Predict the 3D structure of the following.
Amino acid sequence: MKIVTWNINGVKARLEAATAYLRQADADVVCLQEIKSVDEGFPREAFEELGYTVATHGQKGFNGVALLSKVGLEDVTRGLPGEDADPQARWIEALVPAGATMVRVASIYLPNGNPIGTDKFTYKLAWMRRLEAHTRTRLAEETPLVLAGDFNVIPDRVDAKRPDAWGGDALFQPESRQAWRALTHLGLTDAVRACHPGPGVYTFWDYQAGAFQKDDGIRIDHILLSPQAADRLVEAGVDRAPRGGEKPSDHVPVWIELA
DNA sequence: ATGGTCGATCGTCGA
């Protein structure tokens, strides 16, 4: 089973690029972030024509996540538990059949947190604590778990072309990285890191200053696997080609293949 | 030091 995650930065602006990619990616499950659409405005027919069942958790203007599946979606849950008053649409999870078992897949859009020193950064860290708590609950269930999305965290220096340039950014703050480690140390495998431990693996290049042309990228889109999912990991990768296409998102797709 | 680019929306915020 192939699972793809992609921050598409606006589903309406990306409909052509997204459907063109999915026609050749052969993905069973797709996690989208930053759909920037309400549920009623999501162009679900364009994805249903490709064979996908669609579940969205959107809001007006910003954020928004979605799950697409060619093998069905069950037990769809919207919103990260732990703060009922949170109005930001950043989490959707569901169960999908994978062979003889089920896999739980979450599409997540972790808060950016910039600028540091503001309530945006406080919200990011609080959201990461909620993510850790909920993940702890899910891990105890021992169903294979896949957390896929834009984590807005650069885990280590190797994950940036110019790590020193990100020193003042919420994506590379010690607190953000510590929270990432607290999460992964619950027993999660960073799938792309596991398969491609070397430098130069990036998933985001800013629109400004010719960042992509200079390969001035960072790795912030991740797929984390529970032990039961990691046992079935065959390969993981980053598809950077869409970043060089027409009207690209500033992020590119990241994928795993599970046995 | 500043401006540099996008998307959603329609003045301005978020990234």
About this structure: Helices of chain A lie at 15-25, 44-48, 119-141, 174-184, 191-195, 227-230. The domain at 2-258 of chain A is CATH 3.60.10.10 (Deoxyribonuclease I; Chain A).
